[in-house]
C-alpha cells in the first residue's frame, strides 16, 4: 500500500536578519544592545511548516556574506529545503532593526540599498523545486523592485499553470515602498491571483481606506478566485497568552494553516474542518508571541495542541 507523500509547500521572498533591542519597550535610539534574529515573513512561514512536521522549501536570495550563510544554515537546521536559495556576490543580506514598544507592537527600520533579496532574477528561479509544490506562498515585499518583481510574477504564473494553490500574505511594510499609493497599488496588483489571502485589520484599513470592523469593507477585498480570506485576529476565538514579541505570530498562523490546507484541500468547503484548522493556527500564532524572535518562538504540534486543549477544558 502506498501512502501519499507529504505535500510540499514552497515559500518565496525575503529572508533577512532582524536586530531586536535586548530590552523591551525602548526606541531604537535608546537601546543599548540588540539581539540578532533570523527573519523575513516567507522564510518564517517555511520554518513554521517544518517545525509542525510539514515539508517546506524556501526560494529567495541572500548575500554571499556571514549573515547570508547563517540564514541558510538556519533554514537547514529547521528542516527547510534550501535548494532554491541563491547567493549574491555583490549585495548584502538585508537587515531590519525592529523595536518592540511597551505594548509589544513593532516599529521597523530597514537596511536594503539594494539588498540581495531584491536582486533575485527570473533565470535564478528553481522551477523544478517550485513545480513540486502543492501550495506556493508569497508576500508583497518581493514586488517592490526589479528584478525581484519579475521573478515573483514569473514564479506565480508557473505555479498557477501547474495547478498549485496560491497563498498571499501582503505583510504591508510601508517604509519599504516609495509611497503609500505605490504600496496600495503594488499589493493589489496581484490580489486577484490568490486562492488564499491573510490580512490584518490594519492592512484591511490601509488597502480599503475603510473601517476593518465593518463586514462590507472586508468583503470588498473578496474576489471570485478566492477560496478563503482570513482576517488575522480572525472570527475564531484567539488565545490569551503573555505576549513578549508579536514578530512572526502571523507567520506561525499562516504556516500552520497552509499545512492543514496542503494535507486536505477540501478544508475550504467543510466548515467544521476549517474551524479546527483556524483554531489550531491561532494557537500557533499565540505561542509564537511568548518568546523573542520569530523562528526560535515557532511552536511544535504538541505545544499548539496542548493550548487548544487547555482552552477546550
UniProtKB/TrEMBL annotation:
<dbReference type="InterPro" id="IPR050306">
    <property type="entry name" value="PfkB_Carbo_kinase"/>
</dbReference>
<dbReference type="InterPro" id="IPR011611">
    <property type="entry name" value="PfkB_dom"/>
</dbReference>
<keyword id="KW-0119">Carbohydrate metabolism</keyword>
<dbReference type="GO" id="GO:0005829">
    <property type="term" value="C:cytosol"/>
</dbReference>
<dbReference type="Pfam" id="PF00294">
    <property type="entry name" value="PfkB"/>
</dbReference>
<dbReference type="InterPro" id="IPR029056">
    <property type="entry name" value="Ribokinase-like"/>
</dbReference>
<keyword id="KW-0418">Kinase</keyword>
<comment type="function">
    <text>May play an important role in maintaining the flux of carbon towards starch formation.</text>
</comment>
<keyword id="KW-0067">ATP-binding</keyword>
<dbReference type="GO" id="GO:0005524">
    <property type="term" value="F:ATP binding"/>
</dbReference>
<protein>
    <recommendedName>
        <fullName>fructokinase</fullName>
        <ecNumber>2.7.1.4</ecNumber>
    </recommendedName>
</protein>
<comment type="pathway">
    <text>Glycan biosynthesis; starch biosynthesis.</text>
</comment>
<comment type="similarity">
    <text>Belongs to the carbohydrate kinase PfkB family.</text>
</comment>
<dbReference type="GO" id="GO:0006000">
    <property type="term" value="P:fructose metabolic process"/>
</dbReference>
<feature type="domain" description="Carbohydrate kinase PfkB">
    <location>
        <begin position="8"/>
        <end position="299"/>
    </location>
</feature>
<keyword id="KW-0808">Transferase</keyword>
<dbReference type="GO" id="GO:0008865">
    <property type="term" value="F:fructokinase activity"/>
</dbReference>
<dbReference type="InterPro" id="IPR002173">
    <property type="entry name" value="Carboh/pur_kinase_PfkB_CS"/>
</dbReference>
<keyword id="KW-0547">Nucleotide-binding</keyword>
